[in-house]
Amino acid sequence: MEMENQNKRRDQSNEELIADRTGELGCCGWVLVIISFFFALVTFPVSVFMCVKIVQEYERAVIFRLGRITDKKAKGPGIFFILPCTDTFVKVDMRTVSFDIPPQEILTKDSVTVSVDGVVYFRVSCPISSVANVSNADLSSRLLAQTTLRNVLGTKNLAELLSDREGISHSMQTSLDDATDPWGIKVERVEIKDVKLPHQLQRAMAAEAEASREARAKVIAAEGEMNASRALKEASLVIAESPSALQLRYLQTLNTIAAEKNSTIIFPLPMDVISHFMYEKK
């Protein structure tokens, strides 16, 4: 609903601007128009090549008659007619245009210098406004995109810049769309392409990430040792309750060693047998 209301207000403002641009020619203007029309009729076989114009499907023509815009709507696509002496027209391309924002050196909110570039997609939504309200809509939009990129990213810290690209792109699109609305430009999409960090900062972040991974690995290993000790404690309690379970465990160990085709077989002896011999020796 908010987008629809914004679009309605935008259309109304554009219509008001166009209505201000289009006005009466006055007596002298009508006299010149009549004279031009008369000469076009007199020289009809020749003037037809000067009066008939064609624009493509993706183009519109804004006609100026004695320096004033004739209609509230641009002509085209197809064939339209102009008067040879009093009318001039400007072609406007209505297709979506994309351009790259050159890499910008930006100082973030936490005083880190980064190089950021992006891409902007825009199109002409009102041909009359794009011709009458700005001298070069394409160049003006490019320059405005560069300054908007700096202004938006200057309010973000490095962590937000690296993690919240979608939010930054949406903020830039809103700012650009509002600024280029009087020019008849509709910004469709803004994307952040690449964020280049200084080499020293990259090494520092890599060292920090490596230290963090090592710390997590040590914590995981310690947790594994703790769980293993608990399991061994429970197993020892079970074996202590049933001495025959220890003998079965010995046999399982011997079976595992024999299955690996080893030349050496280790036969474990109970500790009570060894302690018996130790007592006799004393």
From TrEMBL:
Keywords: Membrane, Transmembrane, Transmembrane helix. Pfam families: Band_7. The keyword Membrane applies. GO terms for cellular component: plasma membrane. InterPro entries: Band-7_stomatin-like, Band_7, Band_7/SPFH_dom_sf, Band_7/stomatin-like_CS, Stomatin_HflK_fam. The chain crosses the membrane at residues 30-55. Residues 50-209 form the Band domain. The keyword Cell division does not apply. It is found in: Membrane. Belongs to the band 7/mec-2 family. This is Band 7 domain-containing protein. It comes from Conger conger.
